[in-house]
Amino acid sequence: MNDLFSVAPLVVVECLALAALLGAVLASFVGCAVARSLAGQSFLTGRSRCDSCGHVLGPFELVPVFSWLRQKGRCRWCGANIPARCPVTEGLTAAAFGAFVWRYGVSLQTMEYLIFTLILLAVALVDWDTGFISDGLLLAGILDFVLLTLLRGEGAAALGRGLLAGAALAVPLLLIVLVMDRVLGRESMGGGDIKLFFTVGLFGSLRTDLLVLLLACLIGIGLAFVPQKTAHEGEPSGAIPFGPAISAAAVLSLLWGEPFVAAYLNLFV
To answer: Is 209:165 a contact under the CB 8 Å cutoff?
Structure first.
């Protein structure tokens, strides 16, 4: 447990509720920022509008999750469908924020993971829509790891451990992918996915590297059943972006990876 549970239960509930609310609001902002950026628009100025009719959305139409449910997934003015991924990403991010506070308390480590969760959300949304993982977002994740590690006072040793874990996850995967590309005669995994695995590895450990890879594969199989409009440019028909699966696996591993691996290893002691 963490220091959060040394306070009154009501305070704990309030902290978790505030964390979840913050997660939902920030997820809504990230979704808006990604959509506007991909459309070549600024996400720093202008009111939120319906993508179909252009109607400016009011406060009650912008409440994460609940507005979508209240409007039954449609714009109140033109009836256009609002993508279900909006409430799904908002709800999942809210749950992740609450879980991180529950797991790690109110701390710099929690802040590091919350920021990384938002970066991973942006990575997942961009990759799902474009089949491309932005180096800028990966760099933001690396900076999050470096700056918050230094702020926690852990220094060069922690940075070195993260670098080792990231390399241990990405380098063998890169070698396997190069062999597979040669055998298949085509790209078997994008370079962005490998760089994302490296970035994710920074936040984990050698013990959780294999778990992240396994979870990403399992989640990727599940996402294969989620309908997509078209294959992205340069990808074979039916190709599924791997970034969302890697991102989800990273969040799950940061939350419960170490306890899971420890429990598994204890089975052999």
So the answer is: yes
Q: Classify 81 as helix, strand or coil.
A: strand
Residue 76, classed as helix, strand or coil, is coil
Cα–Cα distance, 257 to 96 (Å, whole number): 14
Distance CA 90, CA 98 (A): 12
Element at 49 (helix H, strand E): none
> Partners of 49 in the beta sheet?
56
pLDDT tens for 134-191 read: 999 999 999 999 999 999 988 899 999 999 999 999 999 999 999 988 888 888 788 8
User: Can you tell me the distance from the alpha carbon of 188 to that of 177, in angstroms, rounded to the nearest whole number?
Assistant: 6
d(CA 78, CA 9): 45
What are the two backbone dihedrals, phi and then psi, of residue 81, each rounded to the nearest 5 degrees?
-70, 140
222-255 residue pLDDT tens: 988 876 654 555 555 556 789 999 999 999 999 9
Structure tokens at 85: 């991924």
Cβ atoms of residues 49 and 56 within 8 Å: yes
**Domain locations in the chain as residue ranges:** 1-106, 107-269
Tokens of 94: 């809210």
pTM higher than 0.85 for the full model?
yes
Tell whether the model's pLDDT for residue 101 goes beyond 80.
yes
CA distance 242 to 231: 13
3-class SS of residue 241: coil
Rg of the chain over Cα atoms, rounded to whole angstroms, equals 20
Degrees to nearest 5, angle at CA 74 with 70 and 67: 30
**What's the CA gap between 68 and 75, in Å, rounded?**
9
Fill in the amino acid letter for 64. Answer: P
How far apart CA 181 and CA 184 sit, in angstroms, is 5
